Amino acid sequence: MFETIIGLIEQGGYLGVLTLMFLENLFPPIPSEVIMPLAGFLAARGDLNIVGVILAGTMGSFLGALPWYYAGASLGEERMKRLAKRYGRWLTVSPKDVGEASLWFQAHGNKAVFFGRLVPAIRTLISVPAGIARLPLPSFLFYTLAGSLIWTTVLTVAGYVLHTEYDRVAQFMDPGSKVVLLTIVGVYVYRLLKISAQREYQ
Q: Where are the transmembrane segments (predicted)?
């Protein structure tokens, strides 16, 4: 998996980084915690420019947040809950998740968008209640961009700084990433079954 992601980024360059981060925000097949450090490795090797990597990753994360914002804004909380009840199990999002995220957003407002972009578990979900609450688009864009910039910078710099350990990290990360991938799949299946069970009792 290590070499596969490296290959995708090498072939796609900055556009590849942007695309992977965009997809990671829509439906995370590969977490940003893997994508950006590896892009940082390539920047340290001289294949890419670190500033370009950070900008591409930030833009991908930023653009990936927009569809969820517009979904929340156009559908509203009740319709989002109905949608989550009908289709959300495939994205492991339940009506309860939508409701709790909305309450959390209402309690924290703009800060929820900014800090939410720094928390792996809610990086994508925070865009939905922001849209539902009709947070002004300029504010949403600003806080999303600021949070995404910090997140991608930290991950990229971490990969850049560790470039001297590239070979050692590759040896451990490739089998380790398979464990991470299996864990992600396992959690997805667990959430899928859990939400399906909740639907049966509703």
A: 12-30, 50-71, 140-163, 175-193
Residues in CB range of 21: below 8 A, 6 or more apart: 32, 35, 36, 56, 57, 58, 59, 60, 61, 64, 152
Over the chain, what HEC string results?
A: CHHHHHHHHHHHHHHHHHHHHHHHHHCCCCCHHHHHHHHHHHHHHCCCCHHHHHHHHHHHHHHHHHHHHHHHHHHHHHHHHHHHHHHHHHCCCCHHHHHHHHHHHHHHCHHHHHHHCCCHHHCCCCHHHHHHCCCCHHHHHHHHHHHHHHHHHHHHHHHHHHHHHHHHHHHHHHHHHHHHHHHHHHHHHHHHHHHHHHHHHC
Q: Whose structure tokens read 């959300």?
A: 88
Neighbours of 173 (CB within 10 A): 19
Q: Which of 195, 172, 171, 197 is nearest to 90 (CA)?
A: 195
Domain regions of the chain by residue span: 2-201
Separation of alpha carbons 144 and 123, rounded Å: 10
pTM of full prediction above 0.85: no
